[in-house]
Amino acid sequence: MKNKSPFSKVSSYQEIGEYWDAHDLGEIWDETEEAKFEVDLESDVFYYAVETSLSSKLHTIAGRRGVSVETLVNLWLQEKVNSSIADD
Fold first, then answer.
1. pLDDT per residue as tens digits for the range 43-60
2. What is the spatial distance between Cα 43 and Cα 72, in angstroms, rounded to a whole number?
3. Which residues lie closer than 8 Å to 67 by C-beta, 6 or more apart?
4. pTM of the entire predicted model
5. Residue 82 domain-assigned (yes or no)
6. Does any domain span residue 68?
7. Residue 22 resides in a domain
8. Total structural domains within the chain
9. How confident is the model at residue 85 (pLDDT cuts 50, 70, 90)?
10. What does 18-72 look like in DSSP terms, one character per residue?
């Protein structure tokens, strides 16, 4: 018969949190089993027209920073949106 986990008698997320506050995964590592699952983190994609010269500059800056153009544009837009919201 399989041993029950330390969580089999808990009744709330709080109790699980209290358990992990007092314990370390290393204590029960040998009792864990490998889990296989797929994660699909696709987000919605929207396309917007960008002037050619601006696109070239974005590619240059993104390359220097070691990130994709998509990441650079998303970070900059997020900063601008957050700033605009804070100003309202």
1. 888 999 999 999 999 999
2. 16
3. 75
4. 0.51
5. yes
6. yes
7. no
8. 1
9. very high
10. HHHHH--GGGTGGG--------------------HHHHHHHHHHHHHHTS-HHHH
